[in-house]
Amino acid sequence: QVQLQESGPGLVKPSQTLSLTCTVSGTSITTDYYWAWIRRPPGKGLEWIGYIGYRGDSYYSPSFKIRTSISLDTAKNSFTLQLRSVAPEDTAVYYCARRSIWYEYAYWGQGTQVTVSS
After folding, report:
1. Secondary structure class of 103 (helix, strand, coil)
2. Cα–Cα distance between 51 and 95 in angstroms, integer?
């Protein structure tokens, strides 16, 4: 079955770049889906960060666009989030997910806690 697993540092210092990887198993990332990053800050709802298609086409939410990059690694069947110039407000549980062309998010990783603190 399709599984997604996030990995990356649990603690990042302010102004640094957060890098997270989502490793996909049970399917290839080169299929006709989009691969997304979403987060949930403490006490708040889900925030959509962005997604990328297997052709490399990407979309970023306006509030993240200026400091976010999402990329695919077909050799490792994974995709990566880079969030630059992080601040304490970027503290959240970060999730990766698969999005269908009908905007269904059927598969999610378990989430990884990221804390931004000096």
Report:
1. coil
2. 12
3-state secondary structure of 89: helix
Q: What is the pLDDT of residue 32?
A: 85
Residue found under tokens 């200026």: 66
Task: State the Cα angle at 34 between 100 and 19, rounded to 5°.
Answer: 140
What is the b/e burial string over 24-59, where b = at least 16 CB atoms within 10 angstroms of the residue's CB?
Answer: beeeebeeebbbbbbbeeeeeeeebbbbbbbeeebe
Burial class (CB within 10 angstroms; exposed 0-12, middle 13-18, buried 19+) of 6: buried
Q: Report the distance separating Cα 89 and Cα 87, nearest Å.
A: 5
| pLDDT tens track for 101-117 | 888 999 999 999 999 99
**Cα-to-chain-centroid distance, residue 113:** 12
